[in-house]
Each structure stands twice: as structure tokens, then as C-alpha cells.
Amino acid sequence: MIKKLSLSLISAAVLFSTASFIPNELGGAVAQAEEKAKSTETVKVPAMRNRVYAQLARAQKLADEGNKKEGLEVLDEVKDRISSLNSYEQAMLWNFYGFMYYGSDNIPLAIESFEKVIAEEAIPLTLRTSTLYSLAQLSMQQQDYNQSLKYLGQWKKINVKPLTSTQQVLFAQIYYQNKDYKNSLKYVNEAVELSLSKDEVPKENWFILQRANYYELKQPENVVKVIEDLVRFHDKPKYWIQLSGMYGEIGEEEKQLAVMESAYQAGYVTSSQDIITLVQLYRFHGVPYKAAKLLSTAIDKGQVAAEEKYLDMLAQSYISAKNDEKAIPVLVKASEIAETGKFDAFLAQSYLNLEKWDLAIASAKKAIKRGGVDRLGNMHLVIGMSNFNLKKFDASLTAFADAQKLKESAKTAEQWYQYVKREQNAQMQLAMLSE
């Protein structure tokens, strides 16, 4: 954002200042400013006559009191006899108009008035310098970035003081808006370095501008460094989340998880999206139980909706953590809201792992009936294995025969079929021997 004009009407018009917009007391500001201007000027500047000063002071007093219309009328009276004014008086008249219009949010007329100020030759260097800087600011507000850079270039040529950090950032902002990211970066980097050299904390928006430039220049490693500075100097939850994401962008996944986990412990991970991101990171790094615990808590608290996709994620996290007991109630709930047998298939496998044969068979059959199962042959295998453990050899062989008809399970089903057939024959022989 551009900083509002900080020039006053008379005192700062001739001596650049960051004081209030319109000073309440004039005192001897004009005389003091003129004295200082004479010591640095090579152009001879005529003096402001008392009668002109009195009318400009009257216009300012009316403006101070909120009577802008009356103040402009006083200025119009002065303008009616502009031919009798010297160049400095004319410049000050237009300067007053500029600030009057600026105070009324009429930026185009303010710019027009300030341009008339710098059109005068015999004016103090300080007035020309401050007016050019104001014109640069106003042109930026009007999104006329080329014109703003033009004024800044003129200002820089006559400015005798080193650039302040704030001035460097103005250059950086305008260059950025003009899509000249290299020059923008140059100035904002100088502003940050100057601030740090004075043991000052650079402003947050300076770092943000740095980050934006590095992003546009496709330098992700430097984007990371800037966000690290944002975390260091302007500690906010969003910067921790952004830093974690950027570590992922540059392939530093361990740092990505570490920062995201630290953010969670600090209470910064609260949105559904951020919680899911951390869950996925836990799963990616092989800690599924942490993923399940986090997601289960978030669902219980209402931070994450108990939607099918998140219930699926939770169940898969439990399954990956070899905790089928925890996965089953989640899968049951997911099965109730799903339109296919996807979760019934997972249930069948979990029940099989827990040696709950009857429940495994029931879930596998339900999965087959409802459809939508990626590997249907696995369900026939579950039915076959469960029936085998229940000593139901005929039902087991039938299930394995069905599994052999499907390509993805044919080989395994054939092996199981032969094994069950041998076991069935062995059982029959034992039965015959015991008669």
C-alpha cells in the first residue's frame, strides 16, 4: 500500500517533512525554510510578500476549520491576479491547491496542481524535491506507474540525502507494479538491509514485497528465506503454514513436517485444510498413528467434517498403523454413508485380520453386492479364507473357484483351492479312519 502524502501546506512545502497534513501553527516556518533553502540553492528564489503570505495563511486556516470550499475561494482570489505574483508565490499558490484537492480526494486535480509547482523555475530545491516525491506517490495511487517512475527519477537526481528505507520501498513498490521485479527486488532488499543495519525490525510488508518478487522471479529457495524472516520478525500462524508448504516445494520434506508439527503444537493449525495437510504429512513420513490420532480428534471437535473422504483417510491411517480395532468403527460409519461397497471391502479385510470370520464373510458379500470395489477377487479370497478357518470346506472351495475367474486373484485363488482341497481330503480320511 502506498503511504499517504505527508507534506504540509506551508512549512513542509518548502522544507520536506513527515509532519501532519496541515500544520496548525505557521509561526516563522516560511522564513526559516527560506533561510535554509538559500544556503543550498543555486537558483535565486524570490521572497514571498506579506500580503500573499497572509492570504495563503487565511486559506489554510479555513481548511483547518473544515471550510475547504471557502479556503478554495480564497485561493481563487489570489489566482485572479496571478500575473502579479512572482514564481515562488505562484508555486506556493499551486502547492496550496494541490493539498486542498488532495484533502478532498481529488487526486487528478492534486497532480495537476503539483505539476504546476515544479513547472516554476525559481523555487527552493526542497520544495521541488518534496513535490516530485508527492507526484510519484500520487501517480502510483492512480496506477500510472511509468509516470510515477519518471517523477522518482527526477526526484532522485536532485535529492541530496541518502535514500531512507521508506523511500527505497516506494521505488520497489512501483517497480513491482510495473512488473520490473529485478529492480523492485534491488530496492526492497536495500531497504531491509538498511533497517537491519540500524538494529531495526524491517516492516512486515517489506518482507511480503521481497517474497512476491522472488516468487515472480521463480526463486523458491529465496522465497523460503524470506518466509523464515517473517516467522522470525513477525511471528504469525499463516507464516508458519506458508513456510511448511514452501519447504515441501523445494523438496525439504523433513523440515516441512517439523515446521507444520511445531505450528500445530503452538496452536496455529486450526483450519480443516491445514489439519488435513498435517495428516497427509504424517502418512507420507510413515507415522500413520499420529495421522489417525490427529484426524480423529479433529473430526470429534468438528474441525474436520465427517465426510466419506476423511473417514476413508482416517480408516486407512488406522489400517496402516496395524490397528484394525480402531479402523472398524470408522469403516462402519463410512459404509453407512457410502454409495458403493468400497468400505465394506475394507471392513472384510479388517475382520479377516482380526479373525472374525463370520463378520469378514458378511462384509465381503456386502461389498460384492454393492459394487464399486477395486479388486473384487480379493473379496472372494476373504470369503474362501474365512470359510476355511470355519472348516466349511465346500463354501471355501466355491469362493476360491469364483476368485480364479478374475485375473487379479486367479493365481492366489488356485493355490488356495489346491491347499483347501488337500485339507478337505485329509479331514475326510481322518474321519473314515475314526469310524
Number of helices: 23
Number of beta-strand segments: 0
| Class by SSE composition | mainly alpha
The rough form would be described as rod-shaped
- The fraction of residues in strands falls at under 5%
- The domain tally reads 5
Query: Which CATH-level-2 architecture of the largest domain?
Result: Alpha Horseshoe
Q: Helix and strand layout, with pairings?
A:
Layout lengths: L10 H4 L14 H12 L9 H15 L3 H12 L7 H17 L3 H13 L5 H17 L3 H14 L6 H13 L3 H17 L6 H13 L3 H14 L3 H13 L3 H13 L6 H13 L3 H14 L6 H13 L3 H14 L4 H12 L3 H14 L5 H14 L3 H12 L5 H24 L2
Helix pairs in contact: 3-4, 3-5, 4-5, 5-6, 6-7, 7-8, 8-9, 9-10, 10-11, 11-12, 12-13, 13-14, 14-15, 15-16, 16-17, 17-18, 18-19, 19-20, 19-21, 20-21, 21-22, 21-23, 22-23
